[in-house]
Input
Amino acid sequence: MEIAPPKADERLPYGPHLSQFVDFRRSAAGAPRPFVIMIHGGFWRQRRSLTYAGHLCIALGLEGFPTANIEYRRISEEGGGWPGTFDDVKSAIRFARARAADFGGDLARTVVLGHSAGGHLALLAAAEFTDLLGVISLAGVNCLRRAYELRLGDGVVAEFMGGTPDELPESYHAADPVNRSSPVPLVLIHGTEDDIVPVEISRSFSQRGRYVELPGGDHFGVIDPSTEAWSVVCGELNSLTQR
Output
């Protein structure tokens, strides 16, 4: 069960579907500040919402970062799955950046974070928004084909894509971050004891960006402000925004 954090400063829709909205939060620091856009995970399934990522966004606000926590259509929702889910993510990022200044964010200094399946979507976004300061994948599903081979989430990749790689080779090629290039700095953070998205998923992508491996780390430590892993995440975020 997800424990809801305090309400966001404002929740705004970017489309007509109930899952097309963004939760904005201001930072504890003065404006303008680097702006962080968060993409939650949950294996692209409807049962996991942006709620859990709200705690992370509150913690980022205390670190001085205004945030936009984005929701999107997921598997089993009309229009969810590939490519609708990623279309929503792109629309939400554009929408959030257009309103960054209203919440103390600096449009020119935007970083996108993604956790788990949100890491997959964040890395895809790096190829679409090439003026980002950086993208950070937290325990991300960074290699879609390998995730399919490992049957992560009880075969969720085929569910998300609407078929297998043999059935949909062009779609899999387009949806896999390993086939995208971007000038945006990429950071991959992954714990060695992650039993939901194995660390090999990030290791296989490590030459594409900065790779930070957390010995003993699990799937959720990277989004838990009470863990040592959280200080690593904040350190990487500060490194990107202070360039």
